[in-house]
Design goal:
237 residues; alpha/beta; Rossmann fold; 7-stranded mixed β-sheet; two-stranded antiparallel ribbon; 19% strand; globular; disordered C terminus
């Protein structure tokens, strides 16, 4: 096999949160660049474990996050746009896995709020180029937001927001890619257990799909369907 495509679907804010909080005064695009490099590293590690290696992996990314609050871009999107402007100018070869080619933004980096993805990662439904509205909503509920109009006397503003339609967008794309005849490798990068239905459905439909968790939790995570712990009804059979 000369070339094989790998779609990496990333729960972006789950990976970027700690980077953004640790670099509040960073230059535009820095936090997104750092996060993407971290994700690239775990993707390389995962692909390096594949038993059958192609001559080249064409790796593309779809990032799922609370990009928009209605028609207003969030700070996450603004930083991502700065990253994309620079990332589009080059393609990168993996450092651990030299056969991994990380495609430039023009063909290999996209937001996941533009459903649906086909085998090339592009939108299937082309009648509208609009994003999902309100993927980010301010729904904190803290005393500051409820009683002070989101701004304290000293000028502090609560920046907490809730993401909407993000996990379901990722799951929808994972399933649509799993039934593609090309049989690309699909990697979901997320620390959220809500991704498990995508893993189950994707593998059940014949997709080569895996889940990468980048943090350790107290309970065991499944990476493939065969790793799932059976429930009581199955265990008793």
């Amino acid at each position: 096999m000369k070339t094989r495509r790998c779609h990496v679907l990333v729960d972006w804010w789950g990976q970027a949160r700690s980077v953004f909080f640790a670099n509040r005064n960073a230059s535009p695009g820095h936090c997104s660049e750092t996060t993407l490099r971290n994700v690239e590293a775990v993707v390389e590690t995962a692909l390096n474990l594949e038993k059958v290696q192609p001559e080249r992996w064409d790796v593309s990314f779809r990032l799922y996050a609370g990009w928009m609050s209605g028609t207003k871009p969030t700070s996450i999107l603004n930083d991502y746009q700065s990253l994309k402007d620079g990332y589009a100018k080059r393609r990168r070869i993996g450092s651990l896995l030299k056969s991994a080619l990380f495609l430039p933004a023009t063909i290999g980096l996209d937001r996941g709020d533009r459903l649906l993805a086909d085998k090339s990662g592009k939108r299937l439904e082309k009648r509208s180029s609009t994003h999902f509205p309100f993927t980010a909503r301010v729904e904190c509920g803290c005393p500051l937001c409820e009683h002070m109009g989101k701004k304290a006397p000293d000028g502090f503003v609560c920046e907490r927001f809730m993401e909407k339609q993000v996990d379901t967008a990722l799951v929808a794309d994972a399933i649509s890619l799993s039934i593609d005849s090309e049989k690309s490798k699909i990697l979901i990068v997320s620390n959220d257990d809500d991704m498990m239905p995508a893993l189950i459905a994707g593998e059940s439909l014949g997709g080569d799909i895996s889940l990468i968790n980048t943090v350790r939790k107290r309970h065991t995570h499944a990476q493939h369907l065969r790793d799932l712990i059976h429930g009581p009804e199955e265990a008793s059979l």
